[in-house]
């Protein structure tokens, strides 16, 4: 059984994967209550699945980009479980989790995470034939800058709910906003990635695994 933990932004998600299916998945929006909510909800999904922490075979955690507090809390819980129960730990970039849900398409995709104070973390991707490939490093910007930069047909996914009617009007004909349900960053996808790495034996060192903050390079694996 593998536990996936994503606390990169105010959108939190947890999942349990048994190698064949996602047994439990729970996603919710928090108002900066990561510390209060994460541990009880993790205990709840383990209890619902009848799984003790010592029975876990792996842990996957979203590494960022994201909020400093959210990443620190999620990684802290994952490391604590890894050390306490000698469980392999797998750190996965947040955008990789989000892009895992995107179907192949010819248009460029821009994935978004909220960064606070009206800002966004944006990462552009193109379909490389077998996987989504990063088109440059993630950037921290505002909606006006993002809208001005989009000059070709583009699909926008992820945390785009802060787009105002004026922004959507400015992007009309150049960008399509993915449906909210399809843009939801789900820990089930994080768990799938973690399980693949568990099977390949590519675990991270809990002592050195660190968050990725906005502006640090990270991309998709082939």
Give keywords:
5-stranded mixed β-sheet, 7 helices, single chain, 11 strands, Nucleotidyltransferase, domain 5, alpha/beta, disordered C terminus, 2 domains, 32% helix, 6-stranded mixed β-sheet, 222 residues
Description:
The chain is α/β, with parallel strands linked by helices. It has two domains: about 1-95 and about 185-200, Nucleotidyltransferase, domain 5 (2-Layer Sandwich); about 95-185, ATPase, nucleotide binding domain (Nucleotidyltransferase, domain 5, 2-Layer Sandwich). The chain contains seven helices and eleven strands. The chain has helices at about 35-50, 70-85, 95-100, 145-150, 165-170, 180-185, 185-200; strands at about 1-5, 10-15, 20-30, 60, 90, 110-115, 120-125, 130-135, 140, 155-160, 175. Strands 6, 7, 8, 9, 10 and 11 form a six-stranded mixed β-sheet that branches. Strand 7 and strand 8 (about 130-135) form a beta hairpin. The longest helix is centred in the middle third of the chain and has 18 residues, at about 70-85. It starts with a strand and ends in a 22-residue tail after the last helix. About 40% of the residues are buried.
